[in-house]
Give the backbone structure.
Amino acid sequence: MHPRLVRLRKQMKANGIDRFLVVDPKNLRYITGFTGSWGALLVDSADAILITDFRYAEQVEEETSGFDIRITKELPFLEAAKVRNGFKGRFGFEAKSVSCFDFGKLKEALPGTDLVPCYNLVQELRVVKDSFEIGKIRHACEIGDEVFSEILKQVKPGACEADLAAEIDYQFRKRGSSGPAFDTIVASGPRSSMPHARAGSRELEKGDMVTFDMGAVFEGYCSDMTRTVVVGKADDSQRNIYHLVLDAQQKAVDLIKSGVKCSDLDKAARGKIEQAGYGENFGHRLGHGVGLDVHEEPSLSSQNDSPVETNTVFTVEPGVYLAKRWGVRIEDTVVVRKEGCEILTGSPKDLLEL
């Protein structure tokens, strides 16, 4: 019996769900191992039916075992609705992954059925990682570290943001990654004050702060790391803000251990930045979970009082952004241990003046 399937059934029982439909591809992969982009899993107390179409008929047999596999010409979720028509229990579905249109079709196919929207039912199972998952994330982080070391050689006046981002993505693939976990960010000069700036045509200039936000995917699992460097010599203001952000990150990292609240971690880093008078310049949460998705639970925000658990993986990424001037963000991916944490991203955090 698949241990993740056992845990899902327990989660269903706790939520009063008699039958559950999984359609999110990452959740499907987590429960079954199937990596195709088109499929559905129907789970109840007796059966686990994995549905896909002709394109994945061989792949699903190779990647999974112990599931009742069905190949359909229908939409997978509609094929799932045909199973034992007349079912009258509570039928749960992934509310974040089923569109209004699909919900309407599902309702037509299951008249009289109590359709129950479920939020994060599988995602909650994914929060705590096993050793297999941590190993994949660790390797993705190692790829990121290698690529960052390589890209630093190209940071100089005249280098183009978009060219640097393209080189990062290429180097990821050369090292065994399936590609970037998100659109690689290279933001220089005044563009570095935008937390999620897209790499553009701007060329680096002497005195620029340059933010690299990059993550690789290795066998489905993501890494996420941000470093900020200077082209040439940093001025006093740049140096002071950089070390403020670094100190704020360390303040949070020092608190991490099993049982600490997400909100307390956010508060530790945010408080340091607020004390220095830059609270308004740190407008995002401290971090987020990392796994099959680069952004998943838990959310390290001031609104989340949930405690972190051992073997949870998340980012710690404070920043200070001075509009139209420049910004600094420093981000690491960490795994929680019973006492403390392990930082999986190993690139240097000294202020690099290139």
